[in-house]
Amino acid sequence: MKTFVDIDKSSNGDYIKLLSAVSKLSGLFSDSRTPYISYRAVENIFCKCFNADNLSRSDSAYDAKYNSMGIGIKTFVCGKNFSTEKIAEFNSLSNSLKKYEGLELAVKLAEYRNDRIELANRLYNIKDSVYHIVARREKELILFETDYNIIDIHNIKSIKTSSSGLKFDDGINEYSFNYSKSTLYRKFFIPEKGFRLPVEILEDPYALLLELLSNESYKTEQDKLIRGVDYVVLPLYGYKNREKYVFEKSGLNQWNASGRKRDPGEVYIKIPIEIHKRFPSFFPPRDKSFNLTIPTGEIFSAKVCQENSKALMTNPNKALSDWILRRVFGLKEGELLTIEKVNELEFDSVIIYKNSESDYIIDKSKLDSYEEFINYQDII
Asked: Which residue has the higher pLDDT, 237 or 378?
């Protein structure tokens, strides 16, 4: 595959131009001769210039999707020929990880990391993956791609422990884990043939901004998503004894309910009554069909059902179970979704975007995002 710099050069070259332009404004934030450009800016510029899907809002293992390729985008200062950077956090699993040490801990970290990558692959139909790196050095940016491999569990070696963490490698990459932060890091090496983009930082970036503001022809932002109007977040769990719990006989485990014989695909995503109370016009009326697009681009026929419009379902109902239980969570027929599985993949909610009264989109959302949403915190 061509590098993204090659792809950019073969088109308008806007990616390199925009990275250079933003880097020139580094004086707004720092007196350093090393260009400053935030990782969010790089992600947004990348997606805009390569027409890639921005996955950063869904807290996925990848930051972007380019065709069927998952892209991890890293931006960091690198004065040497390598830099050790965060690739995963395991805050929700920190207590369970305390049970392991040495090789067992390395294996468990690898399993958790690989599970998240495989979840993203299933969720977004990813066939290949790569890291795109923007390394910042004095007066230049270095752009290159490197592998985005799962950790080779069977080849874990060179294990070193200390009071603060663990180090290991898998014959391909070097990893380290910080106990107190519950964070996994990987060492990224700067290749000799990386593309070097010289950056001349503007002496007075404020003058440029004042000049820009004097031009009244620029457009202001009009498309910021509004909570409860353009999107809502739905939990995949309830509460039992004040703790999160995936109920065994309702919601995504409705197929396991008592009484009549049920189909293994009989499931629904619960819509809390609080959503209807606060945002009564977000969903269509009960039993009115609408399109629901999943992250792969497939479109389901869906509707709000049951008493108090508590259930989001698809027609056929099996479409929802095949997607979220089989393809996303990787569960077999007859296997219960549990809070342990939800926490392991750090995926306990879904976000629903509304394009129109008949057109909606569903995607995964990070842990605790329902609580953040219902308590008025902006998660977008």
From this structure: 237
